[in-house]
C-alpha cells in the first residue's frame, strides 16, 4: 500500500462575486415578484457573496464540465503535465447531461491522452466520493496519481423561467401564485464553482496534505429522501421518478427543480452527522485533541451552533478556533464546497508541518456523511 498526498489544490469560481442584493438580477423574479423568503433565508445562512456561471439574462457563461476543466488546468505545470495524468475522478450533483458521464465530458475538454475515469453522483458527498476513488487508486498502487474534483453548475436550474409554467398554472387555479417553499428555499442557498486536487504517492512542494483515512456513512436504509431533483415526493415518502410523468407534467410541476424536505433536514442532519463523525473518529482512534483544523461543509450558518452542540454532546466537540469555513465568501457550492475550503486553507500560508485537519461533509439527499483526516507534510 502506498501513501497518498494532496500535492496541489485549485479552484475556479466563475465571473464576478454576486452580492445578496444582486441575486435576483441573475436568477430573475418569479411572477415578476421579489421573493418574500429571500431575506429570511440569507439572514440565516450568512452567505454574503457567491458566484454564478450565468449572466444577467440567465444565459450560461460556462457549463459544469467547463468549470471543472478550468479548475483542473491550474494543477498542471512543467513538472506535472496533462500527459502525466493517470486517473480523472469527478463528482457533481448537477451534471450537464445524463450521459455520457461528467468525468467523460471533462476529459473531452482536456484532450490529453487516455486515462481512467470515474464519475461520482449524489449531492454534497459526490465530491468526497470522487476523492475516495482517487485515494484508493493511488493507495493500492493502481495509479501513481489522480485528479479529483467537485463541481456544481446549479444556477441554470434556479432561474425564474424554469418555474414560470408552474406559477401560471397556480394563477389559473386562483391559488396563491408562488412556488412551494421547498423550491424557493434552495434558490437562495446554492451557487456555482469547481475545485480540484492532485493526488500523488509522495509529497511535493512546500505543502502537501497526507490523506490518513477516509470514511463514509449512509442512513438511507432507515430514512426517507430529503433533497431531490428529477422527481417528486409522494405522500408515502416514496419518490416518483421523472420518467413516470407525462411530458406536460415535467413543466407544469417543475419536476426537475431541486427540492428539500426542510422538516426532515432539521430533524436528522445534525444528529446523524454527530453520530457518524463520532463513529469515524472511534474507528480510526483519534480524539478532538488530535485535530488542529476542523473543516465542516455546512449548507447554512443556521446549522453551526446546532452542530457544535451535537458534537459536544457526543464528546467530540471542536474548539471555535479550530473551525475553518468560507461559506460566507464563496457560498454553498455543494460537492465543490469542501474542495474550495481545503484549497483556501492549503494556500493560505497558515498551515505548519504536522498540523492535522478533519474534513466533514454531510449530504441531505438521503442522509449520507463523509469524512477525511489529513496531516500536513
Automatic annotation (TrEMBL):
Q: Which InterPro entries match?
A: ACP_syn_III_C (IPR013747), Thiolase-like (IPR016039)
Natural source organism: Flavobacterium hercynium
The protein's name: Beta-ketoacyl-[acyl-carrier-protein] synthase III C-terminal domain-containing protein
Q: Pfam families in the record, alphabetically?
A: ACP_syn_III_C
**GO terms of biological process kind:** secondary metabolite biosynthetic process
A GO MF label: acyltransferase activity
Q: Which Gene3D superfamilies match?
A: 3.40.47.10
- Keywords, alphabetical: Acyltransferase, Transferase
Q: Where is the Beta-ketoacyl-[acyl-carrier-protein] synthase III C-terminal domain?
A: 283-360
